[in-house]
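Shipment paperwork, digital attachment
Item: protein structure file
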Amino acid sequence: MSNENKLILIADDDADYLYQIEMMVKSFGFRVKTAEGQAEAEKILETTKPDLAIFDLMMEQEDSGFILAYKARRKYPDMPIIIASAATAETGYSFDLYDEGNKGWIKADLYLEKGIRPDQLHREINKLLKI
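Attachment content:
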C-alpha cells in the first residue's frame, strides 16, 4: 500500500501551524484531513478512521489533545497517535510517554515538541505506520 492510501488526521487550533504540518505531511505522500480544534476532530472521528492522528495538546482546553487521544483510542484502539505541542516551552510542563505513571493516562504513542523537523516527523510517522 502506498503512502497515498494512508490518511493522516491533524488537529490544531493554530491555523498557520496546521497549514504547515498539513503541507509537510502531504509532501510525504499521505492524504491529510485537518481539524481546527478538538470538537471538529471529534466529528471527523465519528465517521472516519484515519491511519494515524496528530493532535495539538492545547486547543479549546489545555488538555484537548489528551482528551482527543483518549476518545480516539477508545474508538480506534490500533490507530497510532502523536501529540505535538509547545506546552513545555510555554508552561514548563513536560510529558514522558515512557514513564510508567504517564503511560496509564496519556493515550498517545508519541509526544513531540513543536518545531518538528520534516525528516523527524516523516521518520516517526513511518515508524508508527510500520512502513
